[in-house]
Amino acid sequence: MLLGRVARMYYEHGLTHQEIADTLGVSRIRVTRLLAEARETGVVEIIVHVEESLFADDERDLAAAFGLRQVWISPSVADEQKAARAFASVGAEALAAKLEPDAVVALGLSTAVALVAEEFPDHPLAASFVPVAGSVSGLVNGANPHELALAFARRTNGRAFHLPAPLLAASPEAAAASLADPGVRGVLELAARADTLVAGIGGTARGQGLLLSSLGDAERERLLADGAVGDLAGRFFDADGDAVHGALDARVVGLGLDELRAIPNRLGIARGETKLAALRTALESGLVNLLVTDSDTAKALLAD
Amino acid sequence: MLLGRVARMYYEHGLTHQEIADTLGVSRIRVTRLLAEARETGVVEIIVHVEESLFADDERDLAAAFGLRQVWISPSVADEQKAARAFASVGAEALAAKLEPDAVVALGLSTAVALVAEEFPDHPLAASFVPVAGSVSGLVNGANPHELALAFARRTNGRAFHLPAPLLAASPEAAAASLADPGVRGVLELAARADTLVAGIGGTARGQGLLLSSLGDAERERLLADGAVGDLAGRFFDADGDAVHGALDARVVGLGLDELRAIPNRLGIARGETKLAALRTALESGLVNLLVTDSDTAKALLAD
DNA sequence: GGGGATCATGTACATTTGTTCACAACAATG
DNA sequence: CATTGTTGTGAACAAATGTACATGATCCCC
After folding, report:
1. What is the pLDDT of residues A44-74, one digit of tens each?
2. Where are chain B's structural domains?
């Protein structure tokens, strides 16, 4: 077990990579890689014994300001990749905290949620993961609700459901036909009874979010004219947090805004300046009652 | 709790010192130091999940070759300071493994044992620590048996005993007088009944060990002429592992070699080329039945 | 027995981390 | 009130670590 020896020499005896390489007769780079592997595989476990969360005060303030049940904040850093990972791991922590064994989790389609799935720890909870809307067509590498449900299910030893329908049907009639399908309806009914919703919150900037980016400019303009300020799991809402019913809304195959709002735990996952307006509305109108965001966004939300 | 936030940002979110410093508005150096503090104070705990020890095969071979009950080997590295610390921490591990609550531990005076005391983990065992010989006069920073016993006692919430006598009396008569003192005798009798002896093994090179370095060259020559190859806790032995009785031996205030040998667990702690001959004899003659050494010394001992 | 992919490896470099030093602020001591 | 030690600080440097890329091995499929 070379890996274990390397890990112990490094973490228990404080030798450098080079020293370990010399005593073991391997290259330094190999030691570096073995150590990375040891951390990834859990051979090396690092525990920080701190009860309080990183931004405890901001989390408390945000919860109070918007009447949220709980808030989690990840650290903002310049390095976007790192910030995204930190954000996702805080999201995973938040979801894990709310998840009970055999829970039913409704999943909104969102790149943020997809990242959370990646970071989700391996804990056998046997939960069920159910998409709240159909899939986008084409390759959207890993952000399709079905893959997403699968990723969560794999990590929790749970079950993943598939909604065999497009997120956006070609016409209102086609959407209605999809919804009439027993398989589709069954899954959506299950999603509606979920304990917990996990969804991203999207803004209305051009090209933002999986739904908007699949629309033309004309349709987007129409949405804005109808008062849309953002979307939750594929459903656009206006400045009061009410659903924007229109041509687009009728083509979406998924739970409606009121059905989403009926789910007890509604965990919103969003960060970034472009999402601020949507986020503010979603929080004020109670669309979500649990929030994961980053510290910059939190500060902006609190700066009122 | 700045410390905790820094630790979590670093270990849970993988930010760099600089990134943490920027988000928290402190200097990078401060972050570096806080992280070091977090590791030292145990706020950050690093566990390596590996059952097998570092040099399991050599340990097994050495135990078999010399009929030892158990052997612990620390990694040898060029950096002497680091090697010493690794050695000491393995020594601490070994002693901790053999220590039962309320045990009586006899302590041989040795810099190696002193280092072990430094590395000994804080575990409340309520053991008693008893010197097997008197103190050296003058300042030998931290290697006096009394300080040594205190250091162990502090970390185990145990009791430290003091032997109010010099290691080396001015004359055989003075030594006898010391031994006649009820306080001294009481402590030595307790030491003789110890469950475990922890002692360094010294060679006979000039200036080596606390005892030899306090002698003149003439006395050392005399010792060699009498056949001494090394010492255990202040008592010199010859190539057969038998006591070297002579002018020096009569002046030492402490347990005799036979009394040391009567202690059930005898943990020898020694490493280095200069100690090889002494170590080999001590092992072959059963002066110790438990051994802590480093990998270079282990290899040399096995190369027969 | 060739391609062609995948994997492991090491070199060279970039980044990150740790350490030494000099200085300043403060507290204890004469 | 000077003085000595103690502590905390950051700048500058030295060391350690991580990464991108190039190379060579190995396997697999045709």
Report:
1. 999 999 888 889 889 999 999 999 999 999 9
2. 2-41, 56-302
Cβ pair B41, B27 in contact under 8 A: no
Residue A223: which of A158, A168, A142 has the closest Cα? Answer: A168
Nucleotides on strand C lying under 7 Å from protein C-beta: 9-12, 15-20
- The mean pLDDT of chain A is 88
- Cβ separation B23–A75 shorter than 8 A: yes
Task: Grade residue A188 by pLDDT with cuts at 50, 70 and 90.
Answer: very high
**Does this chain's domain A2-41 share its CATH topology with A56-302?**
no
Give the residue from A96, A101, A84 showing the smallest Cα distance to A120.
A96
Please give the Cα distance from B289 to B209 (Å, whole number).
21
Residues 17-36 of B with CB under 7 A from strand C: 17-18, 28-29, 32-33, 35-36
Q: Residue B138: what pLDDT?
A: 58
Residues of A in contact with B49 (CB under 8 A): 42-45
Tell me which fold the domain A2-41 belongs to.
Answer: Arc Repressor Mutant, subunit A (1.10.10)
Is the pLDDT reported for residue B139 higher than 70? no
Q: How far apart are CA A201 and CA A283, in angstroms?
A: 10
- Chain-chain contact of A14 with B54 (C-beta, under 8 angstroms): no
**Are the Cβ atoms of A14 and B86 closer than 8 angstroms?**
yes
User: Which of A13, A73, A271 best tests the B interface by mutation, with the highest count of B CBs <10 A?
Assistant: A13
pLDDT of residue A138: 58
Chosen CATH of B56-302 out of 3.40.50.1360, 3.40.50.300, 3.40.50.2020, 3.10.20.600: 3.40.50.1360
Residues of B in contact with A54 (CB under 8 A): 5, 8-9
Average per-residue pLDDT for chain B: 88
